[in-house]
Amino acid sequence: MSWFDIINAHVSVVKSVHWRALGSGGAVELRVEAFNVFNRTNLGLPNRVVFAGAAEREPPLVTAGQITTTASDARQIQLGVKVKF
């Protein structure tokens, strides 16, 4: 595994409940999905710009080599309901 691998864990739980009020094949499906369950921070690439190129003998930029972004989103959870009839 290298330092730039993105690691995410996604989980989905589905429960289907038969409901006769919707007819013979009627059912309600309940769904919970979680993305990036462990809320792991995947850091972006470091800033590769070292010099701005404005002057001949300028000092390096203070942001050179700093990581200021993430490569993935934070934990997200969504709920869903599907009615089958």
Notable traits:
85 residues, three-stranded antiparallel beta sheet
Structure commentary:
It is a single chain. The chain is mainly beta and 85 residues long. It has one domain. It contains no helices and 3 strands. It has strands at residues 11-18, 27-35, 76-84. Strands 1-2-3 form a 3-stranded antiparallel β-sheet, with no helix packed on it. A hairpin with an 8-residue loop joins strand 1 (11-18) and strand 2. The protein is rod-shaped, with a radius of gyration of 24 Å.
Question: What coarse outline follows from CA principal-axis ratios?
Answer: rod-shaped
Order of helices and strands: EEE
How many separate domains make up the residues? 1
How many runs of DSSP E, i.e. beta strands? 3
| Span between termini | 48 Å
Strand order of the main beta sheet, please? Answer: 1-2-3
The helix fraction, in percent, is under 10%
Number of helices: 0
Query: Which strand-content bin applies to the residues?
Result: 25-35%
